[in-house]
Amino acid sequence: MLGQMFFAVVGTVLAYLVFHAAQILYKNLVSPLRRILSSPPIPSYFFGNFREIGDSPDLSANWERIYGQTFLFHGMLCVNELYTSDLKALNHIMAHPAIYERSRTFQEVSRRLFGNGILSAVLDQHKRQVCFDCSALATLKRTTPQRRVLNPAFGTPQVKLLTEVFIEKSTELRDMWTSEIGNASGTVEVLKGLRNMTLNVIGQAGFGYDFDALNPHGKSSELQDAFAEVFHSPNAKFYSALRLLQSMVPILGLVPLPGGSAISSARSRMENIGRQIIERSKAVLVSQDGVKATESRRDLLSVLMKANMSAELPESHKLSEDEVLGQIPAFFVAGHETTSTATAWAMYALSLHPDVQHKLREELLSLDSDNPTLDELNALPYLEKFVREVMRRHPPVVWMQRTALADDVLPLSQPIVGRDGREYHSLPIRKGQAVRLPIVEVNTSEDVWGPDALEFRPDRWDNIPAAASSVPSVWANQFTFLAGAHNCIGFRFALAELKALLFTLVCAFEITPAVPKERMGPVRARQVQLPSVLGAKHGTGLPLVLSPLRGAALAVFPQGRMRMVDGDEVRREENETRLSAGASRPIASLTMLTLGAGARRRSRRRMPEVEVICG
């Protein structure tokens, strides 16, 4: 009896898989794009081109040179996927979110990992979760009602309030690295430190949670461990492929594939921590002193919950408890991984371009403050150009995907001569067609940016090409944060954090390569591209040589004693007490000493020798 049931179940599953494979084959064969567009060879009928795209960051650009801006390639199970970097086509896709939605595969994978947050929201949910009009609740009647809850948390006023947190956490990272290398040059694995710093930022600024990730003696948090298990474990890439397969073949969700228990455990831990954070924030909001407490709490979750609990917001437009819970891992992923990656690329670019580094440092040191506001940072023109060039040349997320929810006609700016010999000025799109949006290739297109598109040159932003105005964009004429209804809602947050990090680190260290340029290159982990030592056995990492500059802050340890052997005047920030060069005195608690702003601007020499005696 049991044997019959077993074979019946296995037979049913196999029949379903055969049926599903037949569906894919039929759709591929009848697709009108198949007779029009060329495609690269298929190395595997199971993986399609999936593995080689992940293993070779330059492959898409090479395909463009062979097949043009628009062609077909094959994903897992050989599903046809349309690739296009044609700007007219991309603008059409971005302008029609009701037709071109986030792929069901992406939504399902995100839902399995994070729940019902913004990363997995479909269009109707997304409208309710996100408001792209930055005005206050008073504009209720003039805006789409559903797009109101998340926007206040990511608007410019809120990001300005959080800049102090960005500077504070950047300073903690600077001091950790200063302590690590002492008063001499030293090689530092910067990606690990940046990840821990941005983790602290999203904990504090995102939901008022202290990860204490930069404490070398601290223990990692439960939420941090859960995230690392899913994204940074040695098997993360394999698990990612299995999750993708499960989302494409839903019945496989019933099969206990490898990594499933680890993902379920991580999701459960994320939810447990998330509920604790939400309950704490809710208690503050409804307390007797909730108004005062809320004004003092500036984290994104508190602002989101305040907007969601507003009496002016109709009940039908409020986020459910599960949707609020889903925002925590969404904040965690979007605010942690991508910003640390962008900063790693920025530091790598500085190490390769000492002239750019010198010019940027000169401008940053012109600020008469160790704790600049966002307005002060935004007023620095070369910093702005540098950040734009980093995000153009090295976008952290390298591609996104959309799926057509209905038949459509996709216009093209450049006509295509099809395989049938006919000229096409548009393409017929069938419902269910997957479309790859290549962010890196758009940002480095020679048709847009000229023959030096692959060069890192911040001064290009003094006179950008006219063609750049055609790039679908929410910021700086580049595709990095996408455009339209599904643009990156947190782009202001990410840019402010990046500028704060650059201000703190570039003023503190001279940055030079630790390994030859030829041994470095981009490595892709899912949709994120990181700078790394090629062929490294322990995954991604970015070693750089940091040399302390005179004028950087000095960390003083508890019960320690500091002596400036050869240096300038320093200031004890606690009480503005001045310590002259050569002085030696005990420090009773953890204290930060920095050179005065004037001394920082006057000197470009290395930091003086420092003697730290721990008592």
UniProtKB/TrEMBL annotation:
One of its GO terms (molecular function) is iron ion binding. Its cofactor is heme. Heme binds at residue 488. Pathway: Secondary metabolite biosynthesis; terpenoid biosynthesis. It comes from the Eukaryota. GO terms for cellular component: membrane. InterPro entries: Cyt_P450, Cyt_P450_E_grp-I, Cyt_P450_sf, Cytochrome_P450_monoxygenase. Keywords: Heme, Iron, Membrane, Metal-binding, Monooxygenase, Oxidoreductase, Transmembrane, Transmembrane helix. Belongs to the cytochrome P450 family. This is Cytochrome P450. It comes from Mycena chlorophos.
